[in-house]
Specification:
Length: about 600
């Protein structure tokens, strides 16, 4: 476990040393036992949730009402929901997580209080053994996550940025839970755009495709190349025809064409990789071309099995309930986006042994994936039971403050992503520099570089992640860089402030302190903070179950809020409870850092 004075160590992947599941899971196990004992025939799944009225209890079990409804009228059935609740309470095994007697409220809610000692001990253990010991377990292990996936030679747009940010956070969170995650970049490197591009190069470059080998410099500015060839493609019918021929030659394995293709991909790859490196994103490229050899055999097999059929010269899979079939081969014999996705689905299940496959793209692609998933089931690639679990993680559009598609200062139809990162970082550097000057402190350029990178990139990521991904959101530098509210900047400062408190106390190694001192929260705000810290595993579970990163950002923002309420009312340094309160500060900082790590944000230790 790291200590707030030092940068944190990496995220552990081993959950075998788990020291806590979650309060909710612990309570669910207890209520499950009680339900089984009190109503053995009901086969009831425990419904346990945190209460929204802490006055009456911390968590509640809500089974009594529905259970009563189902038993009503049967012989020996309890006479009202309260009687059901009473029977559940009577059968509840004793445990040290619940303190006092459970109480009943309303028609039959069972309220319980969580033991302060239980939480204190778990927090202390977490400090000693590290937050990874609180990672929830998952009912699956091998996960394929398909994200980012820009198209070669086309603009990597804000939608791809969203996919990259959301996909990375989901991958990090699944990895934290111990999943074996394969992060795949399904790059569009095999489309018809290549015919157009290569034909354009062939016709405009001195010597055409022959002569000197094509260098990466020849395709240096892919945007320019793409735009120029697109204009010709749209305006010149004869060129269009030649471009089509070029695609066929490429797909037929023409060596000159392939050489040009691979140069273009290389140039594109360099650009993408530069962005991933800046953002600290790990992803493995496995573009559409990877699946090319698998396409024809797959289509043949699906035809043979009768899963696919001919329709107006094309080959399609009809799926009940869908107005349009999935086209797996065009009438001109070509394969497309859908064929590749069918082949990829099979490869990921059969060869990668995926238990869960997640696709992160804009919401507009949902109909495509819905159809692919159903066709996969019809083809027997996905089992009848629905295994593996397939998820499309969709997201809305990014808008400028004017409510329209965003533009940068340099204009253009969509933004160059590096410009976004640069501007965010630049603005942060300015703010930090001013702050230092105001405080009369020395300006350390290396430190400003590191801090402004962490803040600027963190701000861009966080602004995206904090929204319910299904909604469109407005991209605003002023908002995302604000010191107030739910922003990365605010949270990074909050973390740095806690680090400063711990430094000021000057008690040496906090880890050593955790081994000797206890957490003894008494003040209501201390208790609320500790309870929230203990809820971290629940936030993680929710995030990976719903695939909603905003569950995690909401949790983190609440954590910071609970810390502030505590700090306003409870003196830490120099108080009688200093040791206990320092441990609470450190636990807050450790969990904050764990959240930052899952969100791909680098923490700051100094304002
Ligand atoms: N390249 C596609 C696009 O830019 C996204 C690919 C998503 N992944 C997939 N397996 N289809 O829209």
């Amino acid at each position: 476990a790291g200590q707030t004075q030092q940068p944190p160590t990496g995220v552990a992947r081993n959950t075998s040393t788990r020291t806590m599941t979650s309060i909710k899971q612990e309570l669910s196990a207890l209520f499950k036992a009680a339900l089984q004992q009190a109503f053995p025939d009901a086969n009831e799944v425990p419904l346990v949730e945190p209460t929204n009225q802490p006055k009456f209890g911390d968590y509640q079990c809500n089974n009594a009402m529905s259970l009563f409804g189902r038993m009503k009228g049967k012989e020996g059935a309890p006479k009202n929901p309260r009687a059901v609740a009473e029977a559940i309470v009577a059968a509840l095994p004793s445990s040290d997580i619940i303190t006092g007697k459970p109480t009943l409220a309303g028609p039959g809610f069972i309220n319980v209080r969580i033991s302060t000692e239980w939480m204190s001990e778990h927090v202390r253990t977490m400090l000693i053994k590290g937050p990874q010991t609180w990672a929830p377990t998952l009912p699956y292990s091998r996960v394929v996550i398909d994200f980012s996936s820009p198209n070669v030679a086309k603009e990597m747009h804000v939608g791809h940025l969203r996919s990259t940010i959301i996909g990375d956070t989901l991958a990090r969170t699944l990895e934290f839970c111990g999943a074996d995650v394969l992060r795949l970049n399904h790059v569009g490197d095999w489309g018809t755009q290549f015919g157009m591009l290569i034909q354009h190069i062939a016709e405009t470059r001195p010597g055409g495709l022959g002569g000197d080998e094509i260098t990466t410099e020849d395709v240096g500015d892919l945007q320019v190349l793409y735009k120029a060839s697109k204009v010709r493609f749209d305006e010149d019918e004869a060129f269009k025809q030649r471009a089509r021929e070029a695609v066929k030659a490429l797909q037929g394995g023409d060596p000159q064409m392939l050489a040009a293709w691979s140069r273009i991909c290389e140039a594109s790859r360099r650009e993408f990789q530069a962005l991933y490196d800046r953002m600290g994103i790990r992803i493995q490229e496995r573009g559409e071309s990877f699946y090319n050899p698998l396409l024809k055999p797959l289509v043949d097999e699906l035809m043979e099995k009768g899963v696919a059929e001919e329709s107006e010269g094309a080959k399609v899979i009809h799926v009940e309930g869908f107005p349009n079939p999935l086209m797996i081969q065009k009438s001109d014999g070509g394969f497309g986006y859908a064929t590749t996705d069918m082949a990829a689905l099979r490869q990921r299940i059969h060869e990668e042994k995926a238990d869960r496959i997640i696709y992160v793209t804009d919401a507009g692609q949902w109909p495509h994936f819905d159809l692919v998933f159903h066709a996969g089931r019809k083809a027997g690639i996905v089992s009848e039971s629905g295994a593996p679990q397939l998820d499309h993680v969709g997201f809305g559009v990014v808008l400028g403050m004017d409510g329209k598609r965003i533009k940068t200062r340099s204009g253009g139809p969509s933004v160059r992503l590096v410009e976004l990162l640069d501007e965010a970082k630049g603005r942060c550097a300015e703010t930090i520099r001013e702050r230092r000057k105001e405080a009369g402190e020395e300006v350390d350029e290396a430190e400003i570089e590191a801090s402004s990178t962490a803040m600027g990139y963190g701000a861009v990521k966080y602004a995206d992640l904090k929204n319910n991904r299904n909604t469109n959101y407005k991209f605003s530098f002023d908002e995302m860089l604000s010191l107030q509210g739910n922003t990365a900047v605010y949270l990074l400062y909050a973390h740095a402030r806690i680090a400063a408190i711990i430094r000021k106390a000057n008690r040496g190694d906090i880890l050593e302190l955790a081994k000797t001192a206890k957490l003894e929260p008494q003040h209501e705000k201390e208790l609320a903070l500790m309870m929230h810290i203990c809820r971290f595993p629940e936030a993680v579970t929710q995030t990976v179950t719903e695939l909603m990163p905003n569950r995690l950002t909401d949790y983190l923002y609440d954590l910071s809020d609970k810390f502030n309420s505590f700090y306003v009312e409870c003196k830490v340094v120099g108080s009688e409870q200093e040791a206990s309160r320092l441990l609470l500060c450190e636990a807050t900082a450790v969990i904050m850092r764990q959240c930052f790590s899952l969100l791909g944000i680098t923490p700051l230790y100094r304002i």
